[in-house]
Sequence to fold (663 residues):
Amino acid sequence: MSLIDVENLTLQFKTDEGLITAVDNVSFSLAPGEVMGLVGESGSGKSVTAKSLMKLNPGNAVYAPESRITLHLDSGPVDVLALQRPRDMEVVRGGAISMIFQEPMASFAPAMTIGSQMVEQLLIHTDMSKKQARELSIEMLDRVGISDASTRFGQYAFEMSGGMRQRAMIAMALSTKPKLLIADEPTTALDVTIQAQVIDLMKDLVDEFGMGIIFITHDLGVVAQTADKVAVMYLGKMIEQGPVREVIRNPYHPYTQGLIDALPQLDDLDKPLMPVPGDIPSPLERPEGCVFHTRCSKIVGDVCKTIVPGWSDTGEDHRTACHLCDQGQSA
Amino acid sequence: MSNDNLIETQDLSVGFPVGGKIFNKSTLMAVNEVSLSIPRGSFFGVVGESGSGKTTFGRALLNAAPITSGSAHYDDGEVNYNLGKLAGADLKEYRRRAQLIFQDPYAALSPRMTVRDIIAEPLEVMGLCNSRDEVDERVREIAGLCRLNLEHLRRFPHAFSGGQRQRISIARALVSKPRFVVADESVAALDVSIQADILNLLKSLQDEMGLTYLFISHDLSVVAHTCDHVAVMYLGQIMESAPTRQLFQSPRHPYTKALFSAIPSLDPDDRGKAQKLEGEIPSPTNRPSGCQFHTRCPFATDQCRREEPHLETFEAGHAVSCHRWRELEMAD
Fold:
């Protein structure tokens, strides 16, 4: 039984320059306790996809009618996109789904103590009393490795370092016991040593609480260290998905291969760095056919420029959307 | 001063006053007695966590942060300057010879200027060209080297992606034909796919224009692939400094080792092997006694807490600042 099912999610933004397609026909599902890495360059639509799960995109977002997001809770399935009133949305936002943002400084209110922000959300989403909420919050702060939690509880965000703020953010996101945690680049703003601590912490918490995690990042190393499965996005399209070992060891799509080749690796310092040629096109000028054909080094023929590739099986649970697969060629 | 070094610093310190004017007055030492030499034509890397003083060190070498004590010398074979005492015409000339490439290409370019005007501005400000035609020619030449099209020059920065903007900002830094370039986290804001492209561009420009880089970064794998010498900084001091290959093959300082093992491996089966560093970098206003790293070092002894270690060079170009590295080496 899956935790969340996303089917044919298509999302466009109304702007002065016209309709911009941010997410194009994306489908995936996540089981409880599973960690999915969502990888892509900036502008690939990974954050927008994740925010759609809570319908958190701005007012100019238009969801296509065939899009469907179903969240399976103990009380029965919830059709997220059908929720209209903010009151109904509370079940999902901060209740069943919590989110950790990239910039821990910007996501805490500067004029409220960390503690009062933690208590506030617990009072909204649970039937706890203020005292219980306070006790749980302190316990969670302690749980994520913040020493002297009861003092920290009364402090403001500016009094903490980046790593500590990110820990507090995680404590806050987990205190409502969400079914799904969306982590949007949670370690990008942190130093490597702190990043390693936060990754470890998140792994422990998955084991303990058993929630599903969607881990958004552009760092394939972080994905390899945390995720069970990976989905690669490019210009709003999902182009490859599968188990983490499969995708990282046998990447099939030329873009995924390009991302891995571009990564500087420590075991071979002589290996030249291979950039993916060209730049990601503007979403206003989405290429016809396969969205990646403008930068692809393995174009099969005109078919890439005219026809959108469908999914092909390229291994166990491993799917790739590329015309190379139709040709039966190995990339 | 040896003739092969472009930059040589001796006990260079940079401090900033903090606290009130009368009460609690103290100095925050962002860079603390750093002695380094950067050979001409090298790609010199400085790595460290945030708060380690690497940016301030780079700024001090550009004469953009005040040198509190110690000295820094610049010698490119044509001119040589004592960077602490630059003024007037010398300072102007040094500004032409030493340039900076910024981290965030989205914030570093004025949205109201065309790309041509952005790249031409240093030439006009420094009065390096006599006519508009000459300016245009220099701009076209450097734009070509940085792989920008001529039609790009008429556009405004908003029309460009991150990678292209970074190429514009590199072109602007190099148009005055500098000898020394400080690249401060120049690829940190870029996607991996673009990052490799910019690094390759910096390398090829180095060969073509005879540049010396000081490459400041927090990303060890990037540094490993681009630099030929790396210095590891922590709380304003150099912990270890060595030729890249040597440093990555046999790191000696516990901090360097911990930094290496914290890099996430691309192998999904290689999880959780990292040697974890507890805690975080201390505040520079409240420095630990003795070795700066002892609060987080798993091998710290009483001696480490009391005495400050000195940077000790034990083989060609490889220096380390640790009381116990020999012992730890034996134990490994």
